[in-house]
Amino acid sequence: QKEVEQDPGPLSVPEGAIVSLNCTYSNSAFQYFMWYRQYSRKGPELLMYTYSSGNKEDGRFTAQVDKSSKYISLFIRDSQPSDSATYLCAMSAMGGNTGKLIFGQGTTLQVKP
Amino acid sequence: DAGVTQSPTHLIKTRGQQVTLRCSPKSGHDTVSWYQQALGQGPQFIFQYYEEEERQRGNFPDRFSGHQFPNYSSELNVNALLLGDSALYLCASSLRQGNQPQHFGDGTRLSIL
C-alpha cells in the first residue's frame, strides 16, 4: 500500500465548475501538507501549504486537512482553462522545507471552455 | 529573482553510462533536494543536501550520489545507467531556517536507450 493515495483521473470539467481534488494517507506522522500544480514539461509549482488540520484559503483555492480521517482536499472555485494541469498532493512529517516530501500520483485536470 | 535552475534540460544516454545533472537553488536558499519523477507518477525523494552533506536519503541504490558546493549548488550523479532510470529529475531548494516549503525547478528529462 502506498503512503499517499491520489486518484489519477483524468478529471474533466466545464469552465466555471467547482473542482474537488483529494488525497488519503496512511502515515499518522505527516503534519505538513502541500498542493503543487504541474504543467506539461514543467516542474511542480507550489499552490498551498498547510500545517496540521484545518482550512486555508487563497483566492480561488481552498485546502482542507482532516488528520483524524487522514484525508486532504483542494477545492478550485470558478475553474478556468488555465487551471488544466496535473495536481500533486505532498506531505511531510518534518517541515516542508527540511522534510522529504511524499507525493501522491497526481490528478490530471482538464477544464473545458 | 531567479528561481531554481537545472541543466541540462534534456539528456540522452545509453545503458551502463554515467550522467551528472546540475542544480542552482533559488537565491537565498541553502538546502537542495533531488527527486525522480517517472512518467505518470508523483516525484520520489532521492536525497537532500545541506552544508555540503547528505542529510536524508530515500530508497535509491548507491548508484545515485550527489554533491553540494559551497555556493549551495548541487549535482546528482547516476552510474551504470539502467533503462528504468529514464525519468524527469527534479531539484528543489529551500531555506533550512523557518518553515517555507520547497521550490522546484523544471527538471532534467533523462532518456536511457
**How many whole angstroms does the radius of gyration of chain B measure?**
13 Å
Written as H for each helix and E for each strand, in order along the chain, the element string of chain B is EEEEEEEEEEE
Mean pLDDT of chain A: 93
Largest interface: A-B, 27 and 31 residues
Question: Could you report the average pLDDT of chain B, rounded to the nearest whole number?
Answer: 95
Report on this model:
The complex is a heterodimer of chains A (113) and B (113). Chain A has 113 residues and is mainly β. Chain A is built from no helices and eleven strands. In chain A, the strands form two sheets. In chain A, strands 2, 4, 5, 9, 10 and 11 form a six-stranded mixed β-sheet that branches. Chain A has a five-stranded antiparallel β-sheet with strand order 1-3-8-7-6, with no helix packed on it. Chain A is globular and about 40 Å long. The model of chain A has no long low-confidence stretch (mean pLDDT 93). Chain B has strands at 5-7, 10-13, 19-24, 31-37, 44-50, 53-57, 64-68, 74-78, 87-94, 103-104, 108-112. The mean pLDDT of chain B is 95. In chain B, 40% of the residues are buried. In chain B, strands 2, 4, 5, 6, 9, 10 and 11 form a seven-stranded mixed β-sheet that branches. In chain B, strands 1-3-8-7 form a four-stranded antiparallel β-sheet, with no helix packed on it. The interface between A and B is medium-sized, with 27 and 31 residues.
